[in-house]
Design goal:
Blueprint: H1 3-34, H2 42-60, H3 65-97
Helix pairs in contact: 1-2, 1-3, 2-3
Length: 98
Amino acid sequence: MPIGLLTLLLYLLLLVVGYVSAGMGLGDWVLKREKSDHPNSTLWRVGGAVAGVLMISLLARIPWAGTWVALAAQVTGVDVLVIQAWTAWKTRDSAVRV
């Protein structure tokens, strides 16, 4: 498989993962804002993630602005994943040095 095609497939996968990650973040934000009794329950978090992805999907259907909403969600989701990976990598390094 040529490296360019593999890179393109990984890029498309990263965009989808970023979109879902932004939906999960939005769902968590809504759950925390509502101050529900079970915000850390797995079922509530899954429901919040589904609701977040649905909200972004509905907003993405708005003519003209929807494209920007979807792009912002993808970029924000990828950014959050990169920051979490970077933080995990840095804390792993500091834990090894101790």
